[in-house]
Design goal:
Length: about 280
């Protein structure tokens, strides 16, 4: 009897080990397909990329892209809105599967994240209060207080330590007086709109974000204006957690989806819908 019990125990232990090995060996793509849902992190306060509409639903370019990605993968999409610094830090612990949030694949971020092909590109843009009469060129921003979203490429650019593969970065020959960081771009846009020089002299974000703020009035009036040409353009990609095992097949699958959306014109249509211009690179 004891011998039979011992044999049964050994068989059970072996089965559990094999089952555990099987689960551990599942790729990120297989886990998503098994769950029939892909969990996407994005920003709820980043129009026109992603924002809450009047019904309290997420809307925007990135949101529409994520929905189309899920559709082409044959799964449902679930959105989650963690803080940006948590996304860029990696080690997500499978709380979400991918970030579709207009992220630039910088050298620094590649230490913690994997990136897909670019799905669109973004021109950086300075802006000032519309009542300002003294800041007419980018060079006039020397010594000024400039608002930026923290942990972004725009912050790195002004700190002169930005590195993007295949993008030539030409820095300004001046220094800002102070860089004030905010959780999101919407926050520094709001501070600038309070008055010329009241809290900020200028802001630095993406051209499409400034254009949308001017177009929509920031919900309650947005007296800002763009100055100068974009100092640089940056490619934007989906991001995945590098610490999650077996993620390369998911990267490959997402690249296939991006290529198909690029080739059939879906990305161009979404860009023109939300940005009123074509920001889609040719792959």
């Amino acid at each position: 009897m004891k011998k039979m019990f011992l044999i049964f125990s050994l068989i059970l232990s072996a089965s559990l080990i094999l089952a555990g090995s099987s689960m551990a060996g599942k790729s990120a793509l297989e886990e998503i397909m098994a769950a029939k849902t892909i969990v996407v992190s994005t920003d709820a306060n980043y129009a026109p990329q992603s924002f809450l509409n009047d019904k309290g639903e997420l809307e925007g370019f990135d949101v529409s892209v994520a929905k189309e990605v899920a559709k082409r993968m044959g799964v449902k999409v679930k959105f989650i809105t963690p803080d940006w610094d948590l996304i860029t830090a990696g080690k997500w612990g499978k709380r979400w599967d991918i970030s579709i949030g207009s992220m630039t694949p910088t050298k620094e971020r590649k230490n913690a994240l994997l990136f897909t092909l670019p799905y669109y590109s973004s021109p950086a843009q300075f802006a000032v209060h519309k009542d300002n009469k003294t800041i007419k060129t980018i060079a006039d921003l020397a010594g000024k207080t400039i608002g930026i979203a923290g942990e972004t490429t725009n912050e790195r650019y002004l700190q002169k330590d930005l590195s993007i593969e295949d993008v030539k970065i030409v820095y300004q020959d001046w220094e800002a007086g102070e860089l004030k960081t905010y959780p999101t771009d919407a926050n520094h846009i709001e501070d600038l709109s309070l008055g010329d020089g009241l809290r900020l002299d200028a802001i630095f974000t993406s051209r499409q974000t400034v254009a949308e703020a001017i177009r929509s009035g920031c919900g309650k009036g947005c007296p800002i204006k763009m100055i100068g040409e974009p100092p640089y353009y940056e490619p934007l990609s989906f991001a995945l957690d590098k610490s999650r095992p077996n993620s390369q097949t998911l990267v490959d699958k997402l690249n296939e989806v991006i290529k198909s959306m690029n080739e059939d014109g879906t990305l161009v249509k979404l860009s023109e819908k939300f940005y009123h211009t074509n920001l889609i690179p040719k792959l």
